[in-house]
Amino acid sequence: xxxxxxxxxxxEIDEQPGVMRNLIKEYIAADGSIKIDQDLLKEMSAADRLxxxxxxxxxxxxxVGKELFEKLVKVPTEVHVASEFGYNTPLLSKKPFFIFLTQxxxxxxxxxxxxxxxxxxxxxxxxxxxxxSTLSREATYTLLLYAGPEIAVASTKAYTGQIALEAxxxxxxxxxxxxxTIKDFDVAGELTKAANGMQELVDEKSEIEKIAAALLKDTxxxxxxxRAMDYAIVQEAALKLKEVSYIQTxxxxxxxxxxxxxxxxxxxxxxxxxxxxxRTAAHTRSxxxxxxxxxxxxxxxxxxxxxxxTDQIVLPEITPLLSALVAIVPAQLLxxxxxxxxxxxxxxxxxxxxxxxxx
Length: 359
Ligand code: F6R
Fold this sequence. Notes:
- The chain is α/β, with parallel strands linked by helices.
- Helices cover about 45% and strands about 15% of the residues.
- The protein has helices at about 10-15, 15-25, 40-45, 55-75, 80-85, 110-120, 135-140, 155-175, 185-205, 205-215, 230-245, 280-290, 325-340, and strands spanning about 50-55, 75-80, 95-100, 125-130, 140-145, 220-225, 250-255, 270-275, 295-305, 315.
- The strands form 2 sheets. The protein has a 5-stranded parallel sheet with strand order 2-1-3-4-5, sandwiched between helices.
- Helix 4 (about 55-75) links the parallel strand 1 and strand 2.
- The mean pLDDT is about 95.
- Fructose -6-phosphate binds near residues 103, 239 and 356.
């Protein structure tokens, strides 16, 4: 039931702080230990490489997962688009472990990869929002998102739920593997910060509504730019905006823009820079200035730590590894408002279905 909300998408954006709290409740005990099946951790720790396979928004959650598993657990991790994996199969390591990220648990592209993985006898985990879904039943292990049904076609709370659960899993695996630095990663504390930060952002949605009206009205195209972790985030931000507003949007590695795509920048082209990483902040700002000099309208979404006084959206504090959890919220809201300001049914974008059961 969407209750007082005009659309499910807005309700689901608002539910994200609750999704973080549910995940803490389901997976983290009062003493900080993680409640995840030891057999799963044992199999993951025996693997020499993790392969995350997913589609669309779940693929974008996988891009963040790669950073979490590599930085926190030091285990090499690859992320693959499910529909490409079968035909463009990477050379697998000796002991691969597969992680399927899927809100619905029914995506045909991912199912087809899992069928092959099972045939080859490799262990697998499905992270999904739907208990007893096909990918859940067919994988060796399942972890549930406990996000409540996601009704809007555009995925929001499943994305942040998947990232949070990947962080919990990375923590558990790091502890299991005795990674010395893992004790510095307070996953419950960080997810609590994420919940509070998300709440701050959704409470300011009327500001974002105004920004959407000023920046995105009438435009045919737009860009999101970022580097490193912010590049992973902008790919999801761009997908959200394009799928519900039909504004053609690209999420670009900001350093790559000048190698061709900058030719598309014209007077008033919206360019949204997401900056959450100290190491890349100065470079992304200079890339934004390059496009501003060619007429682009720039919107800065920056973490408090790296923000300047003129940045329009400032993000609450969180570890840079989990900045996606807060940075995506204004992007989801921009997409939502851009869509309704154009008079569209934001919950049911044209040509799209909630779960894609054909390859
Ligand atoms: C975008 C969106 C899709 C899905 C994709 C995978 O907002 O919802 O890109 O993320 O179709 O779906 P699941 O996660 O159900 O496998």
